[in-house]
Amino acid sequence: MKKAVCPGSFSPVTNGHIDIIMRAAKLFDEVTVLVVTNPDKRCAFTADERCAMIEKALKGVPGVRVDKWDGLLADYVKQNGINAIVKGIRSSSDFDYEFQMALANKSLAPEVETVFMTADPQNMYVSSSLIRQIASFGGDVSDFVPKEIVPDIEKGLK
Ligand code: PNS
């Protein structure tokens, strides 16, 4: 059984994240969407709120589960027998950031591969921070996130 993890802050999950998760689910037997604490970011939603939004958006997708983690990603993948870390890449700046993390994870957990997927062109400019900014000024975020979670985002950020 081939297992992958899609880790991130997901504050909140976007259409770009969902696209990568669905594509990963076609390649792996089990995909864990992992809400990870990023010490460099202050999150607008708690880890449980972020997990709940992802679960709502992915309800019924076979082979996909949601979990949270407050620690090194390398430790989670080792403890859970994960084969691959899947990351979406929107731009060369994403690549620079992700490449550094992939090398660090390779050193910490050598048996795990990082797999990069190019973002769908439609989602190239979509980011959680863009969504937070639009929602905090009362704008409409429904083009950028799954429709099921629009009310949660509006409620949490207005
Ligand atoms: O969505 P983000 O914030 O870009 O995701 C980054 C994240 C949370 C996946 C990354 O910061 C991470 O893996 N954090 C866990 C701590 C860790 O393992 N740090 C070293 C990464 S090489």
Short summary:
The protein is built from six helices and five strands, in the order E-H-E-H-E-H-E-H-E-H-H. With 158 residues, it is α/β, with parallel strands linked by helices.
Strand content: 15-25%
Oligomeric status of the shown chains?
Answer: single chain
Between the first and last Cα atoms, what is the distance in angstroms? 43 Å
Helix content: 40-55%
Dominant shape:
globular
Order of the strands making up the biggest sheet = 3-2-1-4-5
Question: Can you characterise this structure?
Answer:
The protein is 41% helix and 20% strand. With 158 residues, it is of the alpha/beta class. The radius of gyration is 15 Å and the shape is globular. Bound molecules: 4'-phosphopantetheine.
Describe the protein's topology.
Blueprint: E1 3-8, H1 15-27, E2 30-36, H2 47-57, E3 64-69, H3 73-79, E4 84-89, H4 92-108, E5 113-118, H5 128-136, H6 150-157
Parallel strand pairs: 1-2, 1-4, 2-3, 4-5
List key phrases describing it:
alpha/beta; binds 4'-phosphopantetheine; 158 residues
